[in-house]
Amino acid sequence: MRKIIDFNNHWYYKSSFVETDIENEDLSFYSAIQLPHTNVEVPYNYFDDKIYQFVSCYKKELEFSEEFLEKRVFIDFEGVMSYCKLYVDGNFIGEHKGGYTPFSVELTDYVKANKKSILTIMVDSTERKDIPPFGGTIDFLTFGGIYREAQLRIVESNFIEDIFIKCMNPLIKEKSLEIDVTLNKETSEEYVVDFMLYKENVLEHSKTFNCKGKNNTIKIDGLSNISLWDIDNPHLYNIKITYKQKDECIDKIETLFGFRQAEFKDTGFYLNGKLLKLIGLNRHQSFPYVGYAMPKRVQENDAKLLKDYGLNVVRTSHYPHSVNFIRKCDEIGLLVFEEIPGWQYIGDDIWKKQVLADVESMIKRDRNNPSVITWGVRINESGGCHDLYAGTNKLARELDPTRQTGGVRFLMDSEFLEDVYTMNDFIYDGGVKAYLKENVKNFSTYDDTPDIDGAVTVLRTQNRVTGLGKDVPYLVTEYCGHMFPTKITDNEEKLNEHALRHAKVLDEMFGSPNISGAIGWCAFDYNTHRDFGSGDKICYHGVMDMFRVPKYAANVYKSQKSPLVEPILEPATLWARGERCISGVMPLTIYTNCDYIKFYYGSELFGTYYPNKEKFPNLPHAPIVINEAIGFWGSEWEEAHFEGYVDGKKVVEKTFSENVSAEKLEITVDDYLLNSDSYDSTRVIVKIADKFGNPLSYSKEIVSVEVEGVGELIGPNLLPFSAGYCGFWVKTKGTSGEIKIKIKSNSLGTYEEIIKVD
């Protein structure tokens, strides 16, 4: 029977590699580490972007008991950046190209009962021109190391290599499945495949099939009382497939699965036959200091955060993300646009061959995940390459006929080989491009469209973009982003302009029936190469910063949630006379899903205000704009109080002080219970706040962080506040107990948090 063993503990690492390391068993020059692991911790910003681009060495001691004899033994890696060679006791056992796709190596020939062996892995984290996304210049960093999890897989000589589950008719009462069951090799003997369908550990359906050969498709009809998977009720079923010979159970695979229909049409996107406007953000998988190397919990928390902010879709820009992230999307009902690695560059034939390998690996890994609704099989923002993209689309459709393909482009009139025309539309610029054209010689951008004014045109019509003269399935996959980079420390006018641009695009999307949705650029700020960003190796394109602290723009998305789920009232202001040009705070934008708000200036009701449907006619919850002058220069400044009402009842309120001072630190810990059996981590956010809990955006205070017990701090221990916040992650060390966190402020004292590790 199949056995899966965690393979993430008790590794050893050295930040260099020479050929003699292959046979050298001396571990004294190595550091003990756990997976996921980054090959080097980097500063927050202002570092050499080649800091992680080197060859390193990982080792692990292997020792097997007698139960492993006459079994087949594999190591399954989820991701190693970006090329590796593997050896056991000096013997070469495999290699892998590509940093974003899983792979397996077999150890069977080296399994020796009760005798130690040494696994050695050479990891090349340089930007090799034969491996996508490399070859050109890319706007993100590809941090090195064995940065995702690994597992040991023990199976019999014959085993199930793969299963692919297809729901054939999800919208009728009695549903049916086709399941492709693939064994590792041909067999002439008859065998039995058992199908079992569980919901919440209760067996609901089962069936037995007699099979022969390597490949079989089993068909299950008459599945009744099945609940559909959707974004509000993501019902998941556990499917177990058992392979038996002569009544003996040889192997068993189980996976979670959701019954649903997802389809892009020229009239929009439909989930289970119902029209659904897609509202989402792009995500890079990077984090401060450790780059890509964050464990399961942190990946899952990113998915939950995006869902909590009102999104129904996320794009995995520009590569497949962690399986832990995807599976969490399954669990919480967050749709996924998943794409292959690449950015604005197409290489030679060897490079193109790797693209096809990436397509295959991505689809085989995630085609049973209900959250994934389309495959991105074009290199992001690349030019045309007919043969390559004809090949990627053909392969995707063969591997998964149940999902449509997309291909993200930025050029109009691009050859349409996919099922969904996906476009990065950065036409909306607030008038900046017109200004630059007038004042800069030879100015041009890829966003230009003749006879379109980017100051007023928010999204181009799909017919103008495609040049096809007819409507096709159409999705906007990026907007805003580099057109208006915004730091969380920017003044409130710029931060609000950033938010209003996101709101305008979403409003235009909701008002365009032939646009399926829009996915903004992007969720989080991210580290980038020297060729991009603000010179400090950061692109400030996110609606949140790298610590996942929200800017005003994040509230545009959050305010689109139903107030029955969570009432939102977020005024875009510091409430300070003198923050804005010519002083004052008006016009004041409030991002809310309330029916109306009441605004009190001091003790007096100043007015009752309603969503601005004139400027945002299509947005489900338009922002409220107060444009009446108040608090004239030279008058006494007063407190502000806002109340939000739904169905005539006050559901949320927010107050701003007229005389702000530091009153407290507010500490938010994502998780107070971590796992001890493998690498685990959680985020801590510290806010320096006034008496009403509002951040002191311009505080220059520095806090010190001490971590004691069975955990340790990721990154530096002296942290300055940025926009009133600072953040960090703590990680476990493989033992149970308590992590004690001490946060010290010179002005506000010491705060303590306890995290249990069990």
Structure explained in plain terms:
Helices cover 12% and strands 36% of the residues. It has 758 residues and is mainly β. The protein has five domains: 3-155, Jelly Rolls (Sandwich); 160-257, Immunoglobulins (Immunoglobulin-like); 270-558, TIM Barrel; 569-656, Immunoglobulins (Immunoglobulin-like, Sandwich); 664-757, Immunoglobulins (Immunoglobulin-like), CATH 2.60.40. The strands form eleven sheets. The chain has an eight-stranded parallel beta sheet. Strands 3-2-4-9-6-7 form a six-stranded antiparallel beta sheet, with no helix packed on it. The mean pLDDT is 95.
Notable features of this structure?
mainly beta; Immunoglobulin-like; six-stranded antiparallel sheet; 758 residues; globular; 5 domains; single chain; 46 strands; Jelly Rolls; eight-stranded parallel sheet; TIM Barrel
In short:
The protein is mostly beta strands. Strands 27-26-25-24-23-22-21-28 form an 8-stranded parallel β-sheet. A 6-stranded antiparallel β-sheet has the order 3-2-4-9-6-7, with no helix packed on it. The mean pLDDT is 95.
Secondary structure elements and their pairing?
Blueprint: E1 3-6, E2 11-14, E3 31-33, E4 55-63, E5 72-77, E6 83-88, E7 91-97, E8 103-106, E9 116-124, E10 150-155, E11 160-167, E12 175-183, E13 191-199, E14 202-211, E15 215-223, E16 237-245, E17 248-257, E18 262-265, E19 268-271, E20 274-275, E21 278-282, H1 296-308, E22 313-316, H2 323-332, E23 335-339, H3 349-366, E24 372-376, H4 386-399, E25 404-409, E26 420-424, H5 432-439, H6 462-466, E27 474-478, H7 492-510, E28 517-520, E29 526-527, E30 538-539, H8 552-558, E31 569-571, E32 588-592, E33 596-601, E34 604-609, E35 624-626, E36 640-646, E37 649-656, E38 664-669, E39 673-674, E40 681-689, E41 702-709, E42 711-714, E43 718-720, E44 725-732, E45 737-745, E46 749-757
Parallel strand pairs: 21-22, 21-28, 22-23, 23-24, 24-25, 25-26, 26-27, 39-46
Antiparallel strand pairs: 1-10, 2-3, 2-4, 4-9, 5-8, 5-10, 6-7, 6-9, 11-12, 12-15, 13-14, 13-16, 16-17, 18-19, 19-20, 29-30, 31-32, 32-35, 33-34, 33-36, 36-37, 38-40, 40-44, 41-43, 41-45, 42-44, 45-46
Helix pairs in contact: 1-2, 3-4, 7-8
